[in-house]
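Supplementary Methods. Inverse-folding protocol.

Structures were first reduced to a discrete structure-token string of length 376. This string, shown here, constituted the complete conditioning input.
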């Protein structure tokens, strides 16, 4: 089971925070840390360990400046809290350094009376909440594509086969000058048929789900990538080894991850990036439940799987429509890959979100876990 070093850090620092408060803080889904007058970490709850990707014991030997540049607005907030003894809140901050990359962070800073010039920080990654709102909007779009696919498959594929057959006959009997036109007709018929077959994927019924080891899925995808489209790109694995099994369908999750890794590789290659790198990550967000908008629905999605690349980033104009069908930033792209990803993730009861800027694009899947699954 997961165990926080919260209690031992408090004892080592001789903090006045009682054990009861420590237990409460440790259970909160919001990252909470305490800082002394020199901005050294006094304590950190479990959510803070996940936020900073470091254990409480590791944080105890570090300062906030090890994660956030000294010129960051966060330090201005901390200085004002110390001067005026007030509580300050800010929204949608970016906390970025070589050790930390968080955008859309909601921050609260308050005095810590028990420690001279001490402060307590509450840090909440708002991108998870936005993922719910975005994910809810993907569902009707993917269902609309499913209906359209069924109509196209029925109304177009049969006459398309006749057109292709006629083109083959013309190709065999035409003069050389006309043969090229017959070949063009045949090739275009094949292209349209392939597009319809890809759209038919949206009309497939979801299969029965079960326990899936997400690390085995990622390892399978990594091997496929290294033997093909990503053989010249560095693949990095940053996994939490103590994850419970995901609740899903292995083959569909392989398809999702393969699409995301392939997109990342194509972005790096197409952007002419030297030293291309794709980072695969897994993490567990303890106690995260999402509820959004007017929808009476709560989803427990503690398992987070990320695909991050150092490509040129997604064009700004594409980002609001990224998961819609026929939207693609790649030359010759069909624009169905990410729409299919969104559909599969939605059928799993999960969510997907993306953050992108030049040099860093990350897709994150938020997935359910098997009920009662132990965190080994």
């Amino acid at each position: 089971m997961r165990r926080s070093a919260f209690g031992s850090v408090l004892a080592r620092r001789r903090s006045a925070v009682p054990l009861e408060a420590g237990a409460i803080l440790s259970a909160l889904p919001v990252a909470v840390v305490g800082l002394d007058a020199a901005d050294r970490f006094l304590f950190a709850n479990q959510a803070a360990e996940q936020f900073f990707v470091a254990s409480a014991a590791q944080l105890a030997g570090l300062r906030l400046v090890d994660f956030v540049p000294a010129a960051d607005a966060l330090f201005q907030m901390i200085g004002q809290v110390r001067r005026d003894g007030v509580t300050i809140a800010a929204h949608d901050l970016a906390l970025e350094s070589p050790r930390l990359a968080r955008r859309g962070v909601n921050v609260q800073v308050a005095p810590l009376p028990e420690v001279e010039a001490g402060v307590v920080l509450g840090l909440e990654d708002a991108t998870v909440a936005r993922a719910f709102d975005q994910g809810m909007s993907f569902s009707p779009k993917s269902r609309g594509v499913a209906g359209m696919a069924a109509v196209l498959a029925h109304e177009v594929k049969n006459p398309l086969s006749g057109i292709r057959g006629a083109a083959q006959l013309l190709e065999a009997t035409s003069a050389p000058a006309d043969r090229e036109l017959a070949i063009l007709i045949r090739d275009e018929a094949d292209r349209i048929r392939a597009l319809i077959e890809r759209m038919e994927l949206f009309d497939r019924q979801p299969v029965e789900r079960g326990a899936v080891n997400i690390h085995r899925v990622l390892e399978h995808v990594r091997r496929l990538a290294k033997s093909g489209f990503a053989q010249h790109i560095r693949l990095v694995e940053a996994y939490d080894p103590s994850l419970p099994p995901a609740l899903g369908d292995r083959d569909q999750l392989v398809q999702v991850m393969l699409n995301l890794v392939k997109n990342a590789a194509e972005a790096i290659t197409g952007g002419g990036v030297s030293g291309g790198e794709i980072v695969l990550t897994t993490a567990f967000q303890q106690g995260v439940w999402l509820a959004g908008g007017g929808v009476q629905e709560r989803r427990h999605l503690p398992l987070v799987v990320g695909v991050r690349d150092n490509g040129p980033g997604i064009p700004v104009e594409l980002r609001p429509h990224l998961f819609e069908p026929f939207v693609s930033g790649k030359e010759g792209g069909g624009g169905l890959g990410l729409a299919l990803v969104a559909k599969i993730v939605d059928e799993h009861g999960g969510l997907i979100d993306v953050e992108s800027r030049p040099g860093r694009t990350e897709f994150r899947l938020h997935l359910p876990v098997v009920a009662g699954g132990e965190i080994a």
